[in-house]
Amino acid sequence: MNKAALYQFLAKIPDPKADAPPKLQEKVDVVLGIAAWAGTAAGVAGVLITGTMMAISLKRGESSEHMSRLGMVLGGCILVASAGPLIEFVF
User: Fold this and answer.
1) Separation between Cα atoms, residue 38 and residue 46, nearest integer Å
2) Full-prediction pTM beyond 0.70?
């Protein structure tokens, strides 16, 4: 394929507007806000539950892999917190 044919092909590709309709954008913002709130609440609950399990295991004298569980919970919290800025950076 020569350059002229490639340029003609690329010129025919539509370039839609990046802006969503206002009513749709409001609804999507509400859904994303609820999802962000739920992710934050799940992260806080995960840290609290893991901390409680660590305290109970320590009192009983049991050893468990709570640090790896805590690492997974904190990794999820970081992912939830950085999702918006990361996607905004990419797009």
Assistant:
1) 12
2) no
What angle (nearest 5°) sits at the alpha carbon of residue 46, between those of residues 66 and 48? Answer: 80
Alpha-carbon distance of 10 to 88, in angstroms, equals 26
**Contact predicate 59/50, CB 8 Å:** no
Residues contacting residue 28 through CB under 8 Å, at least 6 positions apart: 20
Q: CA-based Rg of the chain, rounded to a whole angstrom? A: 23
Type of residue at 64: S
Instruction: Provide the residue-wise pLDDT of the chain in tens; the chain has 91 residues.
Output: 577 777 777 777 777 777 778 889 889 989 999 998 999 999 999 999 988 888 888 777 776 777 888 888 999 989 888 888 888 888 7
The span from the CA of 68 to the CA of 12, in Å, is 52
On whether the CB atoms of residues 48 and 29 are closer than 8 A, the answer is no
Q: How many CB atoms lie within 10 A of CB 43?
A: 19
